[in-house]
Amino acid sequence: MSASHQMLLGHYLPGASPVHRAPLLAKYLVVLAVGAAVLLWRIPAVGLGTLLLGVGLFALAGPRVLRAWAAPLRQLWWIFAILGIYQSILNTPLFALTLVSGMLAVIQCGRLVLLTTTQAALL
Fold first, then answer.
1. Nearest to 105 by CA among 45, 19, 25
2. Is the pLDDT assigned to residue 74 strictly greater than 90?
3. Burial (0-12, 13-18, 19+ Cβ within 10 Å), 111
4. What is the pLDDT of residues 10-59, one digit of tens each?
5. Cα separation values, 112 from 8, 37, 88, 117, Å
6. Residue pair 111/8 in contact by the 8 Å Cβ criterion
7. Strands, E assignment, the chain
8. Cα–Cα 20 to 30 A to 57, which of 21, 27, 70, 95?
9. Which residues of 4-34 are buried (b: 16+ CB within 10 A; e: fewer)?
10. What angle do CA 78, 86, 72 make, to 5 degrees?
């Protein structure tokens, strides 16, 4: 697997942060809670709040993990841009912001599980 795919999907980054030490079930529950919140409450505050929560968890995991936060955006920014423009035209710019921020929050929280959990623990 190439280095770009490892950063896009999530390549384990060793560390001793509270996020690294958290039980796998707790990490899964955070992803589930973020996904459920984004689906149930489609308002900008929830989308942006979950995105900020994700960034905060990345920061809590350490500087090396935080640097990996933007990795998917380097390759997928155009998908989010097209989706945002399309939803702005079809619905409203506020709905587009809510949708894109919520999607990015869920993706990033899922990546955080992969970045902070060994493959052995995942299996």
1. 45
2. no
3. buried
4. 688 898 999 999 999 999 999 999 999 999 999 999 999 999 999 999 99
5. 11, 18, 29, 8
6. no
7. none
8. 95
9. eeebbebbbbebebebbebeeeebeebbeeb
10. 25
